[in-house]
Amino acid sequence: MSPRTWSRLRLAGGSAILALLVWRLGPGSFMAGVLTVDAGTLVIGALIAVPTTVCCAWRWRLVARALGVGIALPTATTACYRSQFLNTVLPGGVLGDVLRGLRHGRAAADTARSLRTVAWERGIGNAVLVALAVPVLLVAASPVRAGVLAVLALLVVVVLAALVAGRRRSVLGSELRTLLAHRTWPGLAAVSALAVLGHVATLLVAARAAGATAPMTQLVPLVLVVLLAMGVPLNVAGWGPREGVAAWAFAAAGLGAHLGVAVAVVYGVMAFVGGLPGLVVLLVEGRAAATTAASERPALEAVDG
Exposed, middle or buried, 150 (CB in 10 Å: 0-12/13-18/19+)? Predict the structure, then answer.
């Protein structure tokens, strides 16, 4: 399957989920989520986003250093903010990550390896999320517990398939062994766990802002399910599976599908605002590039003349 075809399928899948939700629930749930967001909620979300983004950048730095294409933490943090913003405004939800891999690849003179560091960074984050979420969902008294074992079995199959594919490709297998080395994996696990806590906290704030009054013991399993859904690569700038699974999970818990959609929408707005420093990064970089081009133009004209 070509990258263009896969991109179209992702967009079609996310659009279909959103269209189904609007058809079944109406647009009111989406509007309710937007209207319940206030300045305090956005400020809290932006503050939580700072350490969460730094943890993601730190994870990327650890991966890049282990694989021989090191990157400084400030540079990684700036790039992660840029990618977060682009992921929330561009279709597919991954183009920002592709860009940070490409730009780091140019700086490190190894584009292929740099792109793989981004893929490893995202994959490790998802793996730690699953490792933390599955035990909670199995133990907690939650209506979604029944489906966790089936999802876990599917994930095991996917992981085994990935390991087999990695063994067949010597480069991936070698990189996996490097990342699992003693001096690398504890740091990766720690910063990934902190990043997961940041996302959970943001979703809990979104739930309260949307009007959820259920106790935390009921909300935490639900937001973990929503977080797992965010890893599904069928979305439109992050929208789609998140809202669909939130509607299902909150309905199954007796809290209402409308509330689930509203919570997901509030989170989406918070994620957009939390990623706005990435827009500042893009503007500063664009201005710097324009200034550099303007300073080089006289020299080029003199050479041409």
Answer: exposed
Q: What angle do CA 151, 4, 122 make, to 5 degrees?
A: 45
SS3 state at 169: coil
Q: How far is CA 14 from the centre of its chain?
A: 15
Rg (CA), the chain: 21
Determine the Cα–Cα distance for residues 88 and 90; give it in Å rounded to an integer.
Answer: 6
Question: What 3-state class would DSSP assign to 236?
Answer: strand
Cβ-contact 117, 101 below 8 angstroms: yes
**Closest Cα partner for 94 from 3, 176, 171?**
3
Residue with tokens 């062994």: 177
CA–CA gap between residue 124 and residue 231 (Å, rounded)? 12
Nearest of 283, 279, 280, 271 to residue 52 by alpha carbon:
271
pLDDT digits (tens, 9 = 90+) for 37-82: 999 999 999 999 999 999 999 999 999 999 999 999 999 999 999 9
> What gap in Å lies between CA 13 and CA 128, rounded to an integer?
25
Where is 2: in which H helix or E strand? Answer: none
pTM exceeding the 0.90 threshold for the entire prediction: no
Q: pLDDT tens digits for 203-237?
A: 999 999 999 999 998 999 999 989 988 877 777 77
- Classify the C-alpha dihedral 245-250-252-256 as positive or negative: negative
120: which 2 tokens?
């490893």
Q: Report the alpha-carbon distance of residue 117 to residue 98 in Å, rounded.
A: 11
